[in-house]
Amino acid sequence: MQRSTAVIYTLFFAGALAFVITNGGSKGRGAASAPADAGADAAAPPATTAAVDGDAGTDAGAEGPVQESGPEPAARSDAGVTLLSGEAPPALPGEAPKKVRFGVVLVQYRGAQGAALTARPKDAALALARELAEVAKTDFKAAVDKGDKGSTDDLGYIPRGVLEPAPEYELFSLPKGGVSGPVDTPRGFWIARRIE
Asked: What is the pTM of this model?
C-alpha cells in the first residue's frame, strides 16, 4: 500500500510541476529575459516574449496590448565586452593589481540590467555619463550624487576576473585615485574611480 501511495504522490507532483511550467513558466521566462534584452525599446522585450511564448500580445502586469517596434538594436549585445571605441580591451599588463578598491557612478539606460522601462535612451545616457566623467575628475562625490541609484563613492574591493572585460580593463588600468571615462556595462554606463 505504501508503494502505491508513493507512486500516486510522485505522479501528482510531476503533474503539478508540468502544469506550473506550462501555464506559469512562459510569463516567468519573459520577465527574466527582459534585462538580457538590454538596449531594446521599452516595448521590444514584451513583443519578443509574445512571439516566443505565444502570448496574445500582452505581458504579465502590462496594461494594454504590446506594440512592436521592429528588431532590437545590436548595439547593446557588446556591453561590457568592448570599449566605447568598439574595440576589444587589451590584456591587462602584468603589473596590474590582483584586486582594487573602487567607487562607481552609474548612468542607466533603457534596456540595461535593473533599469526601469522609463529609463533614458542610451544616447542620452552616454551624453550624461560623459558630463559626469568630467565632474568626477575633480569631484567624484558630486558625480556620485548626480548618478543613478547604485552609484557610490566606495564599493569596496573587487578581485580581477569578476567584471566583464571592458569595465575590468578600465578599472584595473587606473592608477590609485584615477577616474575612468564612461564604460558600457550590462548595468549601464560606469565611471569608475580606483581608491586603492
From this structure: 0.61
